[in-house]
Amino acid sequence: MKNKTILFMVFVAVLLVIPVGKAFCGGEVERSPREYFNSGNENRDKGNLDQGIADYTSAIQADANYVEAYFNRGILYFNNGEFDKAIADFEEVLRRKPDNAEAQKLLVIFRKERNIK
Question: Which region holds residue 35: left if phi is over 0, alpha if psi is between -120 and 50, else beta?
């Protein structure tokens, strides 16, 4: 009976340790909006526009008020030739922060570029 009790305790301990181990050994771990944003910046700097867009999108999904993520994603959309998406992101930036002068200027440029292409 003692052996069965010990075996059961070891089994329970293993079940409790596996999820914790995954978190520390590369398993799925929830990232903060800031971590996604920083990853987006790193991918942008490396020229990985699609992955940068995905990272900024994840930051926005984690925090819909992350204005800087909309701004940076809009830039990457523009650089990717996705003008309508860039415009939508900059309109969102201005909806949330109407006094953002840089976003106002870039939105004008984006709209002109869309009409040229």
Answer: alpha
pTM of the shown model: 0.74
- Tens of pLDDT along 40-77? 999 999 999 999 999 999 999 999 999 999 999 999 99
Cβ burial 44-53 (10 Å sphere, 16+ → b, else e): beeebbebbb
How many domains does the structure of the chain reveal?
A: 1
Written as six digits, the tokens of 88 are: 């939508």
- In-domain check, residue 28: no
Domain containing 55 equals: 34-116
- Residues 23 and 18: their CA atoms lie apart, in Å, by 9
Q: Is 17 helix (H, G, I), strand (E, B) or coil?
A: helix
**Residue 5 belongs to a domain:** no
Question: Residue 64 falls within a domain, yes or no?
Answer: yes
